[in-house]
Write a structure and sequence with these properties.
CATH architecture: Alpha-Beta Barrel
GO molecular function, one term: cellulase activity
Order of helices and strands: HHEHEHEHHEHEHEHHHEHEEEH
CATH superfamily: Glycosidases
Enzyme class: hydrolase
Radius of gyration: 23 Å
Shape: globular
Structural class: alpha/beta
CATH class: Alpha Beta
Helix content: 40-55%
Family: Belongs to the glycosyl hydrolase 5 (cellulase A) family.
EC number: 3.2.1.4
Number of domains: 1
Number of strands: 10
Largest sheet: 8 strands, parallel, barrel
Strand order of the largest sheet: 1-2-3-4-5-6-7-8
Distance between the termini: 68 Å
Protein name: Endoglucanase H
Number of helices: 13
Length: about 350
């Protein structure tokens, strides 16, 4: 009788210990399923890997031309060069009706379709966003309904695409949208989730996806979100000579980069993004970074290499800005990569 009782007690203690270890593996208030979903989104961010933006292309205002011609064969070059992803900025707002239900023009949808088809053929992941929706940034409350309607259409059209397609809600929220973004991003996300309940969605902070404003980003309890930030600091270096920069920065020439203090500031800024991500259990995608072509080339290469090193040190995915324009990796006239910049980006491959 005593032996039987002893075995029963030992068996009970073992069950309690096993249950305790299982519960300890799950964070408070988090179910095992939620923990698995959280791991999945970190894996989705890892798959994005190294990317390049197809800038100055589909985000150009309607009937305008910014001098960049991207053709489908360029995607093969991008894949062969070792990139995992492309980010496609799109100015959907110029191709959607201004009255409800804000229908997106079929011909424009078909144009985007072709790029997604080709990217899938080349096994490239795609980040598809809303870019340069100026009305949303300047009059967010007047455009919130249209913003959600546009996303509803995009999400429904591409709901059957594979997990290689990622949605990014809005590029660089700024101006008046700064004060309304936490509410409006929820509306856009709800429009996506109605048809794409688990697709990775990318969302960033205000003031042009500024790392410094990450603390003001208030995200819903959605386990399939990736947080994006952009990196162009110091602005006086990365944007010197750019026609769209302010007069002071536009007039700068010859500013170099690479002192110990400058390197430390860059590392600190990227580390801040990483620490925010860890504290909020969110993966980080560095969706844009680059130094404009007017900057001294050696410093451009040095800065680019430093950004990549720091981003990858902190397990961030990234997408360089951009393919073939003022920041470009590819020289469309010579039909070849700029080898020094490519070396800075792909240094460990």
């Amino acid at each position: 009788m005593m032996n039987t009782l002893g075995r029963w007690i030992r068996f009970t203690v073992l069950l309690v210990a096993l249950a305790g270890s299982t519960l300890a593996a799950v964070e408070p208030n988090e179910s095992p399923n939620e923990e698995t979903q959280r791991d999945d989104i970190f894996e989705a961010n890892r798959r994005l890997g190294r990317g390049v933006n197809l800038g100055n292309f589909l985000e150009v205002p309607r009937n305008d031309n910014w001098g960049v011609e991207i053709v489908e064969s360029h995607l093969k070059l991008i894949r062969q060069a070792g990139f995992d992803s492309i980010r496609i900025p799109v100015k959907w707002s110029d191709y959607a009706a201004t009255e409800a239900p804000y229908t997106i023009e079929p011909a424009f949808f078909a144009r985007v379709d072709r790029w997604l088809d080709r990217a899938e053929q080349e096994t490239l992941n795609v980040v598809l966003n809303i870019h340069h929706y100026d009305g949303l940034d300047s009059q967010p409350q007047s455009h919130a309904e249209r913003f959600s309607a546009i996303w509803k259409q995009i999400a429904e059209r591409y709901r059957s695409r594979g997990d290689w397609l990622y949605f990014e809600l809005h590029n660089e929220p700024h101006d008046e949208l700064n004060d309304h973004w936490n509410d409006i991003l929820r509306q856009g996300l709800a429009a996506v989730r109605a048809s794409n309940p688990t697709r990775p969605v990318i969302v960033g902070p205000t003031r042009w996806n500024n790392i410094a404003t990450l603390p003001q980003l208030d995200l819903p309890a959605d386990p399939n979100l990736i947080v994006t930030v952009h990196m162009y600091n110091p602005h006086e270096f990365t944007h010197q000579g750019a026609s769209w920069a302010g007069p002071r920065v536009r007039a700068i020439r010859g500013r170099t980069w690479g002192s110990e203090e400058e390197r430390a500031a860059l590392a600190k800024e990227i580390r801040q993004a990483s620490e925010w991500g860890k504290s909020h259990s969110r993966p980080i995608f560095l969706g844009e970074f680059g130094a404009y072509g007017a900057a001294p080339q050696e410093s451009r290469v040095r800065w680019t290499r430093a950004v990549v090193e720091e981003a990858e040190r902190h397990q961030m995915s990234w997408a360089y800005w951009e393919f073939a324009a003022g920041f470009g990796l590819y020289d469309p006239d010579k039909k070849q990569w700029r080898s020094d910049l490519m070396g800075a980006l792909m240094q460990s491959r």
